[in-house]
Structures are given as C-alpha cells and as structure tokens.
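#lab-general

N.A. 3:47 PM
ok so I finally got the sequence cleaned up, no stray characters, all 163 residues accounted for. can someone with queue access submit it? mine expired

B.Y. 3:52 PM
send it over

N.A. 3:53 PM
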Amino acid sequence: METPTTLVGGAVLAAFGSALLLWCAVELRLRHQLRRRGVPATAQVVADPDSADGTDSSPLLSYAVEPSAGAAPGAVHELRPASVPGGPGRLVLARPRGHTPLRRPVRLAPGAAVQVAYDPRRPDRVVLAAHEELPSLPADLFWALLGTSALAGGLTLLAVALR
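B.Y. 4:20 PM
back already:
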C-alpha cells in the first residue's frame, strides 16, 4: 500500500478499535453499576406495541418507579397510572441494556415477571438482575476482541507507514 493509504487506513482502524473498546468498557461498567447500586424492581414483559418491534429479541419491560425518581424529559415512556391500581409511583416502559440473543428466550415471553435493577435518576436505564441475565460473556468477548484487533491492525499500519 502507498503511504497515504496506509496512514488513513491505520488511523481509521485505530480510531474504530479505540471507540469500540471504549464503548465496551462503558457498557460493562454501566451494567455492573446498575446491578450493584440500582433500585431492584419486578418488571413485567409486555407485548411490543408496534408490529415492527415485535421481532425485537430484547423484551419490552414495564416496571413501577418510585415517585422521587426523575428522568430527563422525553426519555421515559409512561403508561397511564390508572393501569396499576394502588401502585406507587409510575410505570416505565424500557428495554434492558446488554446482550440479547437472536431469538427471544421463552422465559421472556409477554406476561412473564423478571427481576431488574434501574437507575433512580434515569429510570429508562434498566438491566436484568444477575440471576435473570442471559449469557452475555460470549458477545462481550467478541466485541472486545474485535476492538482489540482493529486497534492492533491500525497501530501496525501506522507503524509501517511512519517507518
């Protein structure tokens, strides 16, 4: 390859690998913190309102949040409070963070109850509880390996070009 092409290719690969590794680290940390410090709740898997989202493997969860939990305007989709008679707070609809398989597991069918943890400051940030979690290690390793490989390839191309 010519030097300009090698430089550009190396810079692009290094930037992509760095961004991917940063995203992986932030996502893992967020999920870990939510599981440790998040507010535990029981959520119900609800049917997707849009037919286009009906094939989404990440379940749509409905859970009650405490009245003091505030979210950014427009970030949380609320259900009518009358849909939960005697329930404290409000209901939030959100999808959990983290890996979901291509097909939705049977235990996450609409109507199923699952344990979750959510951020009280941003109730739309939710993760499945540790014992409810789908195996995410293979996907997390895949993305980390992809980011590491892209970064290594980019740095190698930059080293060759600058030699």
